[in-house]
Amino acid sequence: MYMTQGLHxxxxxxxxxxxxxxxxxxxxxxxxxxxxxRFAGALQGLGxxxxxxxxxxxxxxxxxxxxxxAVPWAGAAVNPVNIRWSPAEVAYSMTDSGTRVLLIDxxxxxxxxxxxxxxxxxxxxxxxxxxPTPEGMLSYETLVAENEPVVDAYRSGDDLAGVYYTGGxxxxxxxxxxxxxxxxxxxxxxxxxxxxxxxxxxxxxxxxMFHLADLxxxxxxxxxxxxxxxxxxxxxxSVFKAxxxxxxxxxxxxxxxxxxxxxxxxxxxxxxxSMERMLYGGSVISEGVLNRTKARFPGLRLTQAYGxxxxxxxxxxxxxxxxxxxxxxxxxxxAPHCQVAILDLDGKEAATGEVGExxxxxxxxxxxxxxxxxxxxxxxxxxxxxxxxxxxxxADGFVFVVDRLKDMIVTGSENVYSAEVExxxxxxxxxxxxxxxxxxxxxxxxxxxxVIVLAAGQNPTAEELQAHCREHIAGYKVPRSFEFxxxxxxxxxxxxxxxxxxxxxxxAQN
Length: 510
Known about the structure:
Helix 2 (29-45) crosses helix 3 (62-73), helix 7 (180-191) packs across helix 8 (212-224) and helix 10 (255-262) packs across helix 11 (287-296). The chain is globular and about 70 Å long. The strands form 6 sheets. A 9-stranded mixed sheet has the order 2-1-11-10-12-13-14-15-16, sandwiched between helices. The protein has a 5-stranded parallel sheet with strand order 4-3-5-6-7. Among the domains are: 22-155, Rossmann fold (3-Layer(aba) Sandwich), CATH 3.40.50.980; 414-509, 2-Layer Sandwich (GMP Synthetase, Chain A, domain 3), CATH 3.30.300. The protein is of the alpha/beta class. Helix content is 30%, strand content 26%. The chain contains 15 helices and 27 strands.
């Protein structure tokens, strides 16, 4: 298996088919492959060798799509950088992975001097934006124009394809080493369901392309052959316009993005009828948001993917026909390429309905963490990838994710799973979004604390919210305290940063 396989197939079978659309740039597969082969030649000319890491710090674009294939074409491995990171975090990932070449677009040019200062390993910056190329950097377009195309290196199998740094929601980022087999097997397994990314699909990239969830969708469509449509970043109006103008059939979003779209006041002003399938994941979606999505897109086929970077990333899939009843609260069943088990603390399989750690195995599981054998041994023990997520499996194999191990709240000796409380809160009309954390409590050890962003014009009391929760969950799970900020801290992938909420709460008490 190799990342560029689908590209060769599309060039052979549909060279004049549209490969990418970005702003006013539309490129065929013939043009797409030529540019990829030329940029690969440029990388080799810059001294990039087999297995080297090449980074990118950029918003979504057609050049990003070219980078994802040109780097393996040149024999190297991709290292997409989280666009929400500070210069220190970016520099750490460059230094840790030994990345010498970094592509950078206009949005991040002000960061360049700090990166060069903090990460001496960086020797070459390639400007991949649309503005003028700064002094001291190389122009992406000039490199493409002035280099001859080279033959695909055909790196494959267990060869390193990418180093993806975790989002850092539960600690300092770790570099996840993923092979060509890891990437392709996960994408093939997802496509094998027959519910996503059919041949000729038009995929809208509104989620950040640095994130592995979007990479999985990108890889699946590249395998099947279709059109990649990019918007620079998620912004409701630009997404609506892209849907109306370019007629995508598929999109991948995280739940926070879906909520923003379906609740946007202009949602009904655009023709979104081309949309056939929506893949969502990255975090748990509440029933309230899910029901509003189904109402706004009545013909849309919804699929939820549960997974993590270490699994390339798909572990389970909740397919369209399973979006009903209690199954809507689950993450679905094991994807075709994956084996799933719920294991207890002793590494034994838990009984049906019993909460334990969600574990996975298959050809999609990572090779390990870059330069971190201890963390690798901890995650890959007993022949399983230990996800760090708590969940249970029902008699039909549906996996219900209840919490991160580190997010579980123990109050008065009772375990409370934050996702369950957040789901109850989501059903209140005044709650736009929420995050539930455990905070210190003298009497109970920890208490359930809800951080809530209110819907416009709403101002419920704590007592009203508590009464609402008691209608859906047990009394000991009901939040005992509340905060009402204007927004929740988010990672670049759209995940709520509960660690930041806990730190903020602790700082406020001192």
